[in-house]
Write a structure and sequence with these properties.
Elements: H1 4-35, E1 47-52, H2 60-75, E2 80-85, H3 93-102, E3 107-111, H4 112-115, H5 134-141, H6 144-152, E4 158-164, E5 169-173, E6 188-191, H7 195-203, E7 207-210, H8 216-222, E8 227-230, H9 232-237, E9 246-253, E10 257-262, H10 263-268, H11 271-304, E11 309-312, H12 316-322, H13 325-328, H14 333-341
Parallel strand pairs: 1-2, 1-3, 6-7, 9-11
Antiparallel strand pairs: 3-10, 4-10, 5-8, 5-9
Length: 343
Amino acid sequence: MVPLRFFHSLKKANILYKIFFTTLFVAISVFALNNWLPQMPAPGSQITLRLAEALPDTNPVTISMRKFADLVEKKTGGGVKVKVYSSAQLGQEPDAIELVRLGIIDLTRINSVALANVSRSIGVFTLPYIFRNYDHKYKVLDGEMGHKVRTDMNQIGLIGFDYMEAGSRCFYTRAKPINSLEDLKGLKIRVQPSRITIRMIELLGAVPTPMNFGEVYSSLSTGVVDGAENDYVSYSTSGHYEVAPFYVEDNHLSPPAILIMNHAKFTSLSPEHQKAISEAAHEAALFERDFMRQSNLEAKEKMKTANVTISTIDTAPFRAAVKPIYDEFPSYSDMIAQIELVE
């Protein structure tokens, strides 16, 4: 028979256990409130905003985000400071979006492919071959439709600033070049986790393999995937060319990037600070567009001297293969028609 004092000891231990974990929970909650959640700034105090960037310091996008930070500090006379966390220190792009929506971090620069998973309307810009060329792309993005898409982000707790350039995405492979549509058949291709991109790869006859950017290098080197797709800059700065030395210029996607901010945090700032941040974002975006175009040209030249095989192909079969995707997303029909009308 178990002694009665055993149950008394067990009951006491259970009470102490509950007290310990209740105290721990309260301590963590207080820490979160004081250190992570948006706070109303005290008059005259310096405000520090946290910006998440998934790309490395050497990438033109990250350099442009540091320029944005410098512009904000200058325009606010040091009243607002932006701290940039590069190389996915605060998480990969899908994580960063959620952290900004929750107000745990303040800003992130994000690719529209990732953002389309939570803000539907921006997904139209991620359709394959949706833009005729670079000029057409920015007439759309800087026009009425681009503004409407940014406004839609308010519904999910975000502020969207000016669009930025993310290059034209092309396929690259580890074992053989892609010289025709037939060469893609059956290959496992890494894609961003997105319904449109996954479906595009299926229509091209390959096997979509969604994964975060930080996992791609090791997956290519070990053969978990046969290839991936990105622009020359990311292909170069990520080192993917070291393990996937065949690059084909098919330019199947040209989705923009965009800087987003937590809506509640933005509106909690003074009108002067809101104006300064918006102006800094606009100037940084224009800087980034030019810088990114030049950097892609330079990255291509670098790849030519790095034993990378670069191919150019007739994209007509690729365009024909992915054309059905436009009908498979009927909610974009009106937007597609408007984009096609932009001269």
